[in-house]
Amino acid sequence: MKDSQVRICIPIHHAKEHRRVSPVGDSHGSIAVAQAGRPVQQQTVPPGASAPDRVTLTARRAAAVTPAQRPIPASSLAPGAVTTREARGSQPSVPLSYLRPATGHVPRWGSHRPWLPAAAMAGLLALALVVPALMAWPRHTAQPLPPGNRTATPAVAKGEAPVTRLPGVPPMPAVPAAPARSVPAAAEPDVRVYVTSTGRTETLPLEQYIVGVVAAEMPPSFEGEALKAQAIAARTFIARRLLADDTSGAPAGADVTDTVKHQAYISKAKLNREWGHAGKSAELAKIRQAVRDTKDTIMVYEGKPITASFFSTSNGYTENSEDVWAKAVPYLRSVSSPWDKQLAPRYAETVTLSRQTVFNRLGLSRTAMAASAGGGSIPEIRILSKTKGHRIKQIEVGGTIFTGPEIRNKLGLRSAEFTWKAEGDRIAITTYGYGHGVGMSQWGANGMAKEGHTATQILLHYYTGVSFAQASRILS
What we know:
Elements: E1 19-21, E2 30-31, E3 33-35, E4 38-39, E5 43-44, H1 51-63, H2 116-136, E6 190-195, E7 200-205, H3 206-217, H4 224-244, E8 256-257, H5 268-276, H6 281-293, E9 297-301, E10 304-305, E11 310-311, H7 322-325, H8 339-343, E12 348-354, H9 355-362, H10 366-372, E13 381-386, E14 392-397, E15 400-403, H11 404-411, E16 418-423, E17 426-432, E18 440-441, H12 442-450, H13 455-462, E19 467-470, H14 471-475
Parallel strand pairs: 6-8, 11-18
Antiparallel strand pairs: 1-3, 2-5, 3-4, 6-7, 9-10, 9-19, 12-17, 13-14, 14-15, 16-17
């Protein structure tokens, strides 16, 4: 090795070993170091040594300096100056140099990184502040859609077939669900029915009454969805009367009769006797199931039960209410009903009446009719106008003007749409459809059900703009 090259070797000690500076005098050029309990021989710089010798000796001394000591650069040493200070003594006034460690060993805190301890403490402090903030950060969870904005397609339960959506008929809402268990259900109201065959009033729960109405009003051979539609219509009809405390047309102490004046009805005793034990138990079970499936459901318009009128068979259309009852009702509008003609067995029916019967029922005198016919035997009949439902609105008979419903009622016809033909002294009148024509056509409902429509689709077709509600809540 050349004199100009200096090799520095730093001994590595175990962390548990103690290092201390042996007490020495303040004489210049001497140092004593104790390592691992073993004294190190003092080395003295001769006063007359040359500069290179001093540098070499200084480097050797630096190799024995403990971490508690700071070496002083050799270039700044004056002859005879002390090269180290005790750790507990005064600090040097000049920057301390960095001693590069041996290969593979890095000092914990180097003299070129005095900021590392402060940085570590700052990092720990920042972590202590961030962790509680992250724990307190609000969690975002999915919120349910508000009731008015539920536009997503409802999931179809496992095992259930999706509802058929047919052209021309809008999607229909499901039958309203039963109230939650936490909300106590209102008591089921009773219905007082006057039974004409016995002359007595029968009191029974609402749902049991609906079973008797559906059995009387619609053939049990009809489709299940048509029976459900009939059950909802029948329940709506009686709910409206109960809510208004309307007992018109019924004897004292009764809410309704068992006739078509209100709704046809078969008593529970008669159902058990004539249906349950006469081979019609399956039909009765079908009707009861339709009532259970629609339990407590009614139709409302602006929050109130509607006048859920219905009839047997249409002529292809239903009627506007004002053309039959002289009062316009917004949900009783004329709609098409093409299914009746295809299904109803008595869609068109012809009745033949004598001339005298026509005279008597219409209240026309023989003189007036003979004059209007020019002395002939057949009175003059002329249609003046028709309704939107394609039925006769006004008709002139023997010079007297009648409405279509008047002619139907006076002559006992099945419908207000009819044609006629003179056959000698008799008149053959052919009617199309059966009933007043307002509201739901029962044969039309069965035709819609056969095509796959649901009960709610059927009802929303025949009753314009209605919605559904629970009878128990409305009546409570």
